[in-house]
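Researcher: Please translate sequence to structure tokens.
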Amino acid sequence: MQIQPVLAALRRHRLATLLIVMEIALACAVLCNACFLIANRLQQTRLQSGVDETSLAELTLTGFDPSQATDLNARVLDGLRTIPGIQSVSVINAVPFGQHAGTAGIKLSRDTPDSAGVVDFYVGGPGSFEALGLHVVSGRAPQATDMSAVADFLPKSAPVLVSRALAAHLWPDADPLGKVIWCADRPYRVTGVVDHLARPAGGQGGPETREWSVFVPALPGENLAGVYLLRAAPDQLNRVLRDARARIAKIAPEVVVDSLGSQTLPQLRDRYFRDDRAMAGMLLGVIVALLLVTALGIVGLTSFWVAQRRKQIGVRRALGATRGDILGYFQTENFLIVSFGIGLGMLLAFGINLLLMTQYELPRLPLLYLPIGALVLWGLGQLSVLAPALRAAAVPPVVATRSV
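Model: Translation complete:
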């Protein structure tokens, strides 16, 4: 089919064509960025915590006197270890997807004024590292001789393990073993690297910081009490946590069990990513609504043009045009309109993405989303124009003579 007659017809309907082009451009820009945001959110929900989530639960107690922390730890550890099915119970300050308790800035040198980043410190008592199920990729796991009392929220000095992501950030071209990080003018020497260890409450500074974690072995005491890590077989974990909460009422009736902080790690993960899933669902609804409005706009405009051109269509049919010719004409016309809109929409998509990058620290929109958005809109346009085009193709040649 010749493109020139189609372009000539569009020039005679400039305003209507421009409105549809702008609508498609907006749909293209929103579609590409919304799909990217959905994919980004869903990718975040698949974050590897690095721990054996299905076997772990957190039990958080509040309302106790810090001076009684040592006695509380002893009673809780002794009492919970007798629960049938429990494999281990240990003291820890936080767990992945739970409430953060040790967020602090670190430096690579005591005297440098520059911060190397904000990280989360996991402070764990005896047995906590093994219970978490962390995988050491280099160096060694904590030993009993590594543990010392906690001053404030960290020991004064201790050997630590860092996540692989944090090690790559701090020492991208060097072996992290033996290196020292400083926090509050206190040195912590790296003796091991774990494969993954997600921060309790996510990363500050973007998704790439979600595994900037440090594990510090320490002795339970006044500054390390009230949060307990339970390990059990996955099929018994819920029952063990339920029994543990009931057992606390007997062995430590003076404390309060924090219901939000006393859950299994699968439950904590589900709650942690609830907003991400809700955002993805909302964006999906926006996409569906926008595509529906765009489709209705194309249907309405094409139906209007078919009604206006009924006599012209009859004349073409009388001169020998087949139904396929009429159908192809409207499909070609729609393809050109959608293509103009897509071209403008791609520029708009990059503009919106640039705004999101500067305001919300989102990554750059991958080019892959542009052809995907174009294919979706081309397909939507062809489907939307099909019904009006079929009606146009069904116009009989006799219409031309009846209109004379």
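Researcher: Any highlights?
Model: The chain is about 50% helix and 15% strand.
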